[in-house]
Specification:
Keywords: Membrane, Transmembrane, Transmembrane helix. With 113 residues, this protein is an all-alpha fold. The protein has two helices and no strands.
Length: 113
Amino acid sequence: MSGKSNNSSIYRSSSSTSSDSSSSNIVVVVAAVVVLVVVVVVVVVLVVLAVAVLIILTAAAGLILVVGVEVVAVVVVVIKVAEVVLEVVLVVVVVVAVIVVEVIVVVVVGGVQ
């Protein structure tokens, strides 16, 4: 009798760990999808902003003829500041994505053990 109860407790513990690992796998998949979506959204936003910068530069080239060099110089400075801000945002997003992926890996490795 004691042998049967012992086997059933082993079976219960192994089944509970398998359900824990499956739930942690679901968390990992969801987190990975969230990271991918965030990276894709950031890339799309950066592409849209780059196109906007090109449009503004084209408009600035036309403004030189109408307004004068001084106004265009101010526009160029504003565009350069916007480029620096975009680069900083991109770096921050990449760093955050890397940290999230590292946390996911640690959770998976911890869940496997």
